[in-house]
Please model this.
Amino acid sequence: MLTDNITRVKKDFSKDIADVKDIGDLEEIRIKYLGRNGIISKLFDQLKDVPKDDKPAVGKELNLLRINVTSQFEKLQTSLASEKDEKESKVDLTLPGKKYQIGSKHILTQTLDEMKSIFKGMGFSIHEGPELESDYYNFEALNFPHDHPARDMQDTFFINEDFLLRTHTSPVQIRLMENMKPPVRAIMPGRVYRNEAVSARSYCMFHQVEGLYVDTDVTFAELKGTLVAFAHQYYGKDLKYRFRPSFFPFTEPSAEMDITCFMCKGEGCNICKYTGWLEILGCGMVHPNVFKSVNYDSEKYTGYAFGMGIERIAMLKYGITDIRIFFENDFRFLKQF
Ligand code: PHE
Model:
């Protein structure tokens, strides 16, 4: 009889629902009793066999069963869900906190920041250029004759016949002058590449800061004054320096600036090859041919340029004797700065 079945289902459901432990169990019960092919829907199917007179009463009972089962199911569902929320959001205040490691700037970034701020203080703006350069910007426009040894495969990483990894930051001078009229007073920091054997003194990649000042009546004395002012601010007032004549295709006259060896303080040692001096930069007055390639009137304008290696500048300040250490990411080295 259907009424007996209804009574049995009521009992079974009470037992089943008492055993529910989690949302998973509850879902099983929903399918078992309330699903499309569930027990209750099967009971409704049996209604058609009930004698006509009994139908309203039995139907009512069946409806009540469904309402009852549904409401018990929903009640339990809500309480299980809020229990789960509570568990997940519980903060355990006794757990030890997470310690975050504070990072710091790489020593080269720190050095460059300091250099930038000194040159900014002297009225220089800051510009950058691409590391992948054309032969034109890296050599041609800088007055490198076609057979100049620096174009040799030994020094330059060529990409193809026309493109290369820049060997210095001087190409940015050209890009800058192409895009603005004098006066130009800028420094141009960046990464450069040389196809050289890696050793304590040289690496296949390093960083330079280029400097350029073009205006009417710019003199070599101003170049010296600016570089000495930089060196004194960066290394201190007691620093000893000297300028030596040198050669670069894009400057005339050209010079190199040396400072006292940090190791032997000028006595002579293996770091300075027993000269007592270490070179920190190349510089000179911009060559008229360079002005020609950017359509500046070399009768009207003069200018100076300089280029220094950031690694070298830092090595001399901190007494670092091997350039490779900058790029090894050895924490013991990095955390000293
Ligand atoms: N570009 C030169 C180098 O890499 C340095 C330099 C820059 C010299 C500007 C003179 C003027 O060696």
Observations:
- The pocket of phenylalanine is lined by residues 168, 170, 210, 248, 251, 282-284, 305-307 (CB under 6 Å).
